[in-house]
Structure formats: C-alpha cells, structure tokens
Design brief:
This protein has about 270 residues and is α/β, with parallel strands linked by helices. The chain is about 40% helix and about 20% strand. α3 packs across α4.
Amino acid sequence: MRIFILLLSIILLVAFCWYIFSSQTKRASSSGEIPVLFIHGYLGSQNSLGTMIKRFEENNWGQKSAYCIVRSDGTVQWKQKGKLAGQLPMVHVVFKKADASLEEQTKWVGRIIDDLKKMYHISSVDLLGHSMGGLTATAVSLERPKDVHKLVTLGSPLKGLDYGELMEMYPRAKNYQASEGARDLVFHSAALRDMHARKEDFAQHIDIFSGAGDIGDGTDGVVTIESAYGLDSFTEHIHFQTFHESHSNLHESKEVDEAVYQFLKRD
C-alpha cells in the first residue's frame, strides 16, 4: 500500500511539474511577443541601425530587448539579453564581418533565431533589413518560412546593383571589391538568381513591406526603385512605399520610421 501511495505521489508530482512548465512555455510562446531583428547592410556596423532603434524607443514604439554580435567565425555573442518588453521587442544584430556572403549571413541569422527560440520560447520573429540586410532577411524567409512573421526591406538591391555606383557614394567600398558580399550584391549575381528562382516557394503568410529611396533619378543613389521593389513577384501580401531619401538616410528618416512602425505594430 505504501509503495502504491509513493508511486502515486511521484506521478502527481511529475504531472504537476509538467503542468507548470507547459503553462509557462505556453504563456511565453503565445503572449503575442514577436521580436523584431534589425539587420544592417553591407559594410555596416552597430551604428547603422542603432539610431533607428533608439528613435523607436524614444517614441515608445518598442524596446531594445537584446543585442548580439556575430563574430567573423560565425559565433553568436549575446551582449544583452533582457525581457521581451514593449509593443515591439527589438533585437539589434551586428556582423563583425560586414562584407560576408549572403549565404554566411543567412546561416548566422538562423543561429540567432534558434537562440531566441530557446531563450524566449517564441515561435516566430519579424525581420527588418537595410540594403544587403534585406537580402539576408529575404533569404532567411525562404529558408525558414515557419520562423518568420513579417519582413521589412529598406533600400535592398533585390535585383542587384552597380558596384561602381556603390563605390562612388561609399569610397570605402573600393577596399572590398573582391569580397564575397560584393559578388552577391551585383546585378545578375548567382545568389540573387538563386533567390528569384525560388520565389514560388515564398510562404504566403509572410507580409512584406519594401521601402525604396528616390533622390530624383529613380534611385537612392545606389539602388534603383525597381531593384528595391524586387519582391513584387514573390507574393501578393506586400506593401511598397517610396521615400525622398538617399540610401543611408532610409534608416535615418522619421517618415520611414513611421511607415515601418505602422506596418510592424501589433493590433
């Protein structure tokens, strides 16, 4: 009899512990908290999207909940891990190897998403990418559709760009002409051809916002509007908006901030 009572007690204890764990996990995953990953562009740094994140905080639109650096070897180093607080919990992503290939960056963001799922028990993320960051965000959406809720691209050369024009606006880019990142960015690159060849696989539950800059010549100085709107054939769930801004100013514009927030904000 005592053995029966002991076994029953153990079963009840295990069941209670499982109930508590399941309830906590369910609350974490179904709380509506979907973090937004901010992914900078080619040759970018922590400053590239840092001011945009700061403005979102100042406007009480969101809170920077986590910050991570991806080292050149692909190791993800978490510098900040806080609660997913605010309407838009923001995750600041920085690549130390800022001229990395699209394939490398896609893998790295995948590791970040895996870490976030373990840390916060979330089921999906929103992705916001400027320039090449938007290419990476799109590639991740193709590779891991179940993990992506919404996608934002800002001045992203989804149909490629002219590297010569990039160097004119950013002379520093001359030092990285031979990089894998440079190879992937240009018109008709193998990486972009592969992405567009897979457009039929793009998950239709993912909503997209694509922003383009126009300084008066149909480009933002680097990326044409046509290229920035290169996801037009991927899905019907897409919103396009053109801003009178240059390439870098797309992440320094209050008008862009407002448009992106309206797209991302939770109902």
